[in-house]
Write a structure and sequence with these properties.
Elements (H helix, E strand, L loop, with lengths): L1 H17 L2 H30 L38 H41 L8 H25 L4 H7 L6 H16 L20 H4 L8 H61 L13 H26 L3 H6 L3 H26 L1 H11 L16 H27 L2 H4 L5 H12 L4 H19 L5 E9 L9 E11 L2 E2 L5 E2 L1 H4 L37 H15 L4 E2 L5 E3 L6 E5 L1 H11 L2 E3 L5 E3 L4 H10 L1 H7 L14 H14 L4 H17 L2 E5 L2 H9 L12 E9 L9 E11 L5 E11 L10 H8 L11 E10 L4 E6 L22 E12 L6 E3 L3 E7 L8 E7 L5 E9 L4 E2 L5 E6 L4 E6 L4 E2 L2
Parallel strand pairs: 1-7, 11-19, 12-20
Antiparallel strand pairs: 1-2, 2-3, 2-4, 5-6, 7-10, 8-9, 11-14, 12-13, 13-18, 14-16, 15-18, 16-17, 19-23, 20-22, 21-24
């Protein structure tokens, strides 16, 4: 059996030279673990046979590392090349290339040592199995020696019974000199093995035996007491065993070599399939033109689409081959799976290949819609596209719907695997660099179902939003929060953007007065009139689209503005130079934006230059100041009148803003895809802060954006609510220095009501005006249109507080200054359905007699009752809503019903007010005191 094991080990050692480290760890470490003891014993016995006959030692079986003579070409165990804990094929190749001569010399010496040991061991076993073949006289001599040995053995047994203490000595003297010590040691070991003790070291020397017994004649004495018949049977059994051993040797050697080669072939095949799949998927992104940081400049051709389909098919085929072979492993893989580390890697490979198959299937489903979308993007002039594709069609939308339906099943499979498998198992087959690439992608999986659900809701209204089937025309309004209006600011500039097949056209800002044209419209003869709900307090005439956003509910303000635009003839399309190309176009939607949107874009693009006649550098920090200077001051307006040919966009007063818009669009075309995505994400965040507000005339589209809380509509439910709205009726830009701090104490009652006691402190921080009687000094700070009134040192606005729909106002003070404002404008009649309201004039004035000017800033105080706004014992909610463009801070204290206490009370909230929020306070924990 020992030679067979040696041959197996030799085969596996040879296999380890050519198999990568992952397989080597299995073949080498595992197989060598149970082959090490037989190999050690064979090498130990060989060393004993080579020793001088003077001293022979039997090494205890507990020895772990036998001494190996380097002079005989044997390699010590400590000199074997140890593989690293985790090494790649490249590491192995580098190691072999560096140490090739020494490795070959060591392995050659080790192989020669094993062959030499095998030869000695086979000779030793042959002497034991066929002793007659090595006796003088051949077979006849063997028979005589057997008979004589029988007689001598019988005599020895009788003598042993007579003198037991001389048994070992008699036995030694009846054996040839070269075999006695071995058999004595073997017998001694067997006896002590039987009784469970450790055999002592047996020492026998030639001088301890009589000279006659060490002579050649003594060597021919019989050594066996077995009968001839028994001996023949043992010979036949020995021959059978020897033949069996020979077959095992050959079969083991062949099996080891075959398994080693098959294992290497499996590794190469897996690696090749995985590399092909990765290469194919990389080719897909390259063919789509999205491998870089910039958007594609050319549409995807039909030939490229065919190549992409072929690449996806190739990737799917390779991944399916890996999955099939791992799911039904052959013999080498079955053997390899007994190693825990390799089994873990193979399981990881099986799971990842399954994920890859599903991912490729999803990619194939979305291929056509993706190509159609990319081709539409390449035609977007605003993004620097040069193609003239037709954009998205209704057929493309149908393809998206089908892909969305068929994506559900494979995506569910992927998520089930990822969620049910620990990362240590799922990523075991990947190295650190591969894990770093895969992990961010898999982390997006929990968000994908939500995104697909939103896409499913969007697709029915995509035609109206993206202009698929018929163009969608957007009225884009820029607001100025330094002159506050209810929805965010004075509507000073506009543009009409036409979108056809998801491809937006040209965009050019124009002065709003080109539509309202106040010079030719006489008050009372304008086709647009002030809505009745605002007529009691709105002071300016004629009423136009610039003033139409008087409702804090953006859908209401947008409808009023769109109606004014249509009646005044403002729904026109223009080219990049501002020339009108179409009139009376139907409007699909309105978008209102704050100057912060321009500031955010400038922080991405960096400073830009507005050319002649201005020739100034615009940054995010000075953009609003420059707009005010060139739009509102006499010196700035004079520069606009010097514009040359090609720079005559908009009116002279708003020409700087128009040229700024054109320069910004040119900068957008140079942005990378990463920067565009960054800006798009910022715009989505701006929907929550109301810095961007959107309204659609299509009911389905408006309902979709309303489900995302992106329409800036006010709350109209039955729960408690509060919103402060400021509308500037001064005609100046004083609101750039104005803000509010709202302090509200809310006392809950046991009937589900809430009592409010609110104080509003106005924040006012304008630049110092040293001489309040200097009209120019006042104008340069407040840009007051009528500086003669109060010397221009005032801020007059109409403040409205929208309360819960059941609210009843108790008292209000601090709004007006006696003698300056008519108090009849105060009202409790709400102009918004579903909300109670209190409105009044607020007046802030400066004293020109003081040098520098001092200011009178009134403090507003209000109290009201809001019955039945929550269910006692359940959750109390307060809907806090922000006005776009107004700097607000809120400080709330909510007290429990009288006689109650609980861990949630008193509840405090303090913070800047940058978006609509809902304050939620559980009242179920409130228990009656005492």
């Amino acid at each position: 059996m020992i030679p067979s094991l040696l041959m197996i080990e030799v085969c596996f050692i040879i296999g380890c030279l050519v198999i990568p480290w992952n397989y080597q760890m299995f073949w080498y470490d595992r197989m060598l673990a149970w082959l090490r003891i037989p190999l050690r014993s064979a090498m130990q016995n060989q060393n004993q046979e080579q020793k001088a006959p003077e001293v022979i030692e039997q090494v205890p079986s507990t020895a772990t590392t036998p001494e190996i003579n380097p002079e005989r070409g044997q390699l010590h165990r400590s000199q074997w090349p140890a593989p690293p804990a985790q090494a790649t094929l490249a590491d192995l190749r580098a190691h072999i290339a560096t140490n090739w001569p020494s490795l070959m010399a060591r392995w050659r010496a080790f192989a020669q040592s094993i062959i030499r040991q095998m030869s000695h061991r086979l000779a030793f076993l042959s002497r034991r199995a066929f002793p007659g073949a090595f006796m003088p006289g051949g077979r006849q001599g063997s028979r005589r020696m057997l008979v004589e040995s029988h007689r001598r053995t019988a005599s020895a047994e009788r003598a042993e019974r007579a003198e037991p203490t001389r048994t070992s000595e008699v036995a030694a003297r009846t054996l040839p000199n070269d075999t006695a010590p071995h058999l004595l040691a073997s017998a001694n070991a067997e006896v002590h093995e039987a009784v469970g003790t450790t055999p002592p070291v047996i020492v026998a020397t030639a001088s301890a035996l009589p000279v006659s017994e060490t002579s050649p004649s003594a060597a021919r004495q019989p050594i066996s007491t077995t009968s001839p018949g028994t001996r023949k049977r043992k010979q036949r059994i020995t021959r059978i065993i020897s033949a069996t051993l020979a077959v095992i040797i050959i079969a083991s050697a062949a099996t080891g070599a075959i398994i080693a080669l098959q294992g290497y072939q499996e590794y190469v095949s897996f690696k090749q399939d995985a590399s092909d799949a990765i290469s194919a998927l990389s080719s897909v992104t390259t063919s789509l033109g999205i491998s870089g940081s910039h958007l594609p400049k050319q549409p995807v051709s039909a030939q490229q689409e065919s190549q992409i389909q072929a690449d996806l098919g190739r990737a799917s085929h390779d991944l399916q081959e890996i999955t099939a072979r791992l799911a039904s492993p052959d013999l080498p893989l079955q053997i390899a799976m007994h190693d825990p580390a390799i089994a873990l890697k193979l399981r990881s490979a099986l799971l990842l290949s399954g994920i890859g198959i599903d991912a490729v299937h999803i990619a194939a489903l979305w291929l056509a819609p993706t190509i159609a979308t990319l081709n539409a993007v390449t035609g977007i002039a605003l993004l620097g596209g040069t193609a003239t594709g037709a954009g998205l069609t209704t057929s493309d939308l149908d393809a998206m719907r089908i892909a969305l339906e068929q994506t559900t099943a494979p995506l569910a499979d992927i998520m089930a695997i990822v969620q049910s498998t620990p990362p240590s198992v799922l990523f075991a087959a990947l190295d650190a660099k591969q894990q770093a690439k895969v992990t961010p992608i898999l982390q997006l999986l929990p968000r994908i179902p939500t995104l697909l659900d939103q896409l499913g809701q969007f697709l029915p209204v995509a035609g109206a939003v993206l202009g698929i089937g018929q163009p969608a025309n957007y009225l884009i309004i820029t607001m100025d929060p330094s002159e506050m209006r209810a929805s965010g600011g004075f509507q000073g500039n506009y543009a009409v953007l036409s979108v056809n097949g998801a491809q937006p056209g040209n965009l050019s800002l124009r002065d709003i007065y080109l539509v309202d044209n106040p010079q030719k419209v006489v008050c009372g003869q304008s086709p647009v009139v002030v809505p009745q709900q605002y007529a009691t307090w709105w002071p300016f005439c004629p009423f136009g689209s610039r003033d139409a956003n008087l409702s804090p509910d953006f859908p209401t303000s947008a409808q009023l503005t769109l109606q004014a635009f249509q009646e005044l003839g403002g729904n026109v399309l223009t080219d990049a130079q501002g020339n009108i190309t179409a009139t009376q176009v139907p409007m699909t939607a309105m978008i209102a934006i704050q100057p912060t949107i321009i500031e955010q874009l400038l922080r991405i693009t960096g400073p830009i230059t507005v050319g002649a006649p201005y020739n100034v550098t615009v940054t995010a920090d000075n953009v609003q100041a420059l707009i005010h200077y060139y739009q509102l001051t006499n010196a700035g307006r004079a520069v606009g009148g010097q514009a040359g040919a090609g720079n005559t966009l908009s009116s002279a007063n708003k020409r700087f803003t128009a040229l700024l818009g054109r320069s910004l669009l040119a900068s957008v075309k140079t942005l990378s895809r990463t920067q565009l995505l960054q800006y798009a994400q910022q715009l989505f965040a701006d929907l929550a802060t109301k810095d961007v507000q959107v309204y659609f005339t299509d009911p389905g589209a408006e309902a979709y954006f309303s489900s995302l809380n992106a329409t800036s509509a006010i709350y109209r439910g039955s729960e408690d609510a509060l919103m402060m709205t400021v509308t500037n009726i001064s005609g100046n830009k004083a609101d750039m220095y104005y803000g509010v701090n709202i302090y509200d104490t809310i006392q809950l009652d046991s009937q589900g009501g809430a009592s409010h006691a609110m104080t509003v402190y106005s924040t006012w921080d304008p630049p110092v005006i040293t001489n309040g009687y200097d009209a120019n000094a006042v104008y340069n700070v407040l840009y007051d249109a009528n500086s003669a009134e109060y010397n221009g040192l005032f801020l007059q606005q109409y403040d409205r507080f929208y309360l819960a729909q059941s609210a009843i106002t108790d008292q209000a003070s601090g709004f007006s200054v006696s003698g300056l404002v008519n108090d009849y404008r105060t009202t409790s009649q709400s102009d918004e359905a579903g909300r109670a309201m209190y409105g009044s004039i607020y007046m802030l004035t400066g004293n020109a007699a003081d040098q520098p000017v001092t200011w009178n800033v009134p403090v507003i105080q209000m109290s009201w009752q809001a019955p039945h706004v929550y269910t006692p014992g359940e959750v109390y909610r307060l809907h806090l809503e922000r006005q776009s463009g107004l700097a607000e801070s809120v400080h709330l204290t909510i007290m429990p019903p009288p006689g109650c206490s609980g861990p949630n009370f008193p509840y405090h909230f303090n913070g800047s007010f940058t978006s609509d929020i809902i304050i939620t306070v559980p009242t179920a924990a409130c228990q009656a005191a005492g």
